[in-house]
Predict the structure.
Amino acid sequence: MTWIRRIANLYELLFRRQNRETDLDAEVKAYFEIIVERNMEQGISREEARRAARVKFEGPEQVKQKVRDARMGATLEATLKDIRYAARILRRSPAFTAVIVFTLALGMGANTAIFSIVQAVLLRPLPYYEPNRLVVTFEFPVHDKETKIFVSYRHFLEWAKKSTSYEKMAAETWVRGPRFMLGRGAPQSILAVPVSADFFSVLGVPPQIGRTFSQADLSQGCTVVLRYSFWQSRLGRQADIAGKHLTLDDSSCAVIGVMPPSFAFYPLPSDMWTLITPGSDLDRNPDRNGVAVIGRLKPGVTRASAEAELRLLARATDQGRDFGLETEPVSFDLQHEFTWLAGPTLRLSLLILLGVVTLVLLIACVNVANLLLSRTLVRQREFAIRTAIGSSRARLIRQLLTECLLLSVSGALLGVGIAFGVVYWLKISNPVELPPGATLNVNIPVLCFAAGLALLTTLCLASYRLGKGRKPESTKL
């Protein structure tokens, strides 16, 4: 039943502390009297016996502290004492404390807000099945590595048929103009993106309603899958939409499914995806129409080896020429490409911005550390007295560390609140286009980042404060 005894001791430590201190005081006094009685048995007077007992006893407070340190939960008790004492010290100078907390909150809030963007854009995996195996391929003129062009639809068909590096390949093109949906009031302009039959299966995302494209749909005429927001806002969330028809320009298109609310792909304004069928313009003129090629690599296949295979296939198809140019295919990680499509300098801009706000936090830490250092020098007399009555150097360092931790945690909490506000403003104002799948929010990884900032800030403040605040050994600091 040891664990029951431990729980009981911890309960007494936390909730019956006053009773334990009273009992301890009585025990120390009784122990002191026992020593006095033993000294008197040697034939000396009571006054001499008490004097000898005091010399041997080391002082009641020192004995009490040794007993406290030997108890179970002594570290927790000491930590709680340090926190309470640090809170009292900080409450004595509310303006000073507010300035420090607000300064740290600005630095931590800026870092947390920017990290939430970095995490959403660069670190969080795309919301597809095993996104690390997804690549997108374009072509570049051999003598112009800056100009990215679509792959001809003919090359895509050859690659999809003959490539052995990919589980599946799909095509998508977004250069088509808008189409008009008729038969539902006034004509409505929509963005319908043509894709091949394996587009959704390559991404590995199931639909919310109905199904996605299959090879059987290639002989069924115009077939579409709707984006969730389009189905919700334009079609009134019809639960039985699968199987109904929409009129796009002069074509009647069968709706077979609706994607989930979280699904997004480039381009972001897409309203629906239409199936590329035999006899369509892309199929009739495969040399004059281009597509982006999305592929899922087989397990263990690298992007470089798959790209090399596509180059061989391209040379075998048209001697390495596409749209009348000598070209070569180049593959990119899908997440990297999404970031580039959202802004060619978006990745670099985010990393620079994160570096800038980190520098701002470091400057804030130095300023706060200097303020705390001035307070440490003012409190030298307090530390000297505490040293004189038995406090060890480690205990004083722990106290200063606790004060720094309390300030850093307070700054981090306020900083997280600032980050929530900044992220909310970014979501409603949308000043910068973010890649598909990048959803801004202050989630668990972002909160862990804020907690890490609080810990690092504590260590920086404490190290600076102790390093610059050293005094002669008489103060033990």
